[in-house]
Amino acid sequence: MNNSQILFSAAKSEIDLLQVQELFSLGAFWAKERNIEDLAEAIKNSEPVITVWNKQQLIGFARATSDGIYRATIWDVVIHPDFRGTGLGSRLVETVLSHPRMNRVERVYLMTTHQQKFYEKIGFEQNNSTTMVIYNHSNLTNLDSLNAATQMT
Predict the structure, then answer these.
(1) What is the reported pTM?
(2) Beta-carbon count within 10 A of 62 CB
(3) 31: which residues sit within 8 A by CB, 6+ positions away?
């Protein structure tokens, strides 16, 4: 790999959603079925979004959400299979962590299924104290309807 051809970018405007979808299909078993519309919404609501390019080919992607001070979560870290083992994954995560939106955050979370050892090398630690999750919260009562019901009584 010629490192002079590799470019890291934080510019959302340069993101090609079709290439993101293709990268996920190739390199992320957990994201193979994501559609373009949902990817666009996730990217719009994330900061930073870091992409890695080899010339015009998208070869890496990661995004984060954060309040900028207390908590942040890193999502969707993926490197194209042809470029794994080159150090790009570590550099990608470190680029996310050093972004101005992230570099002051007290606690950064990351969900991973099989890559704990990779993230431990970067400095992440196993965490058993934050294990709660809720799936498909659309089944919960809408806050507006709850407020309307409260006002009627």
Answers:
(1) 0.82
(2) 23
(3) 24, 25, 76, 78
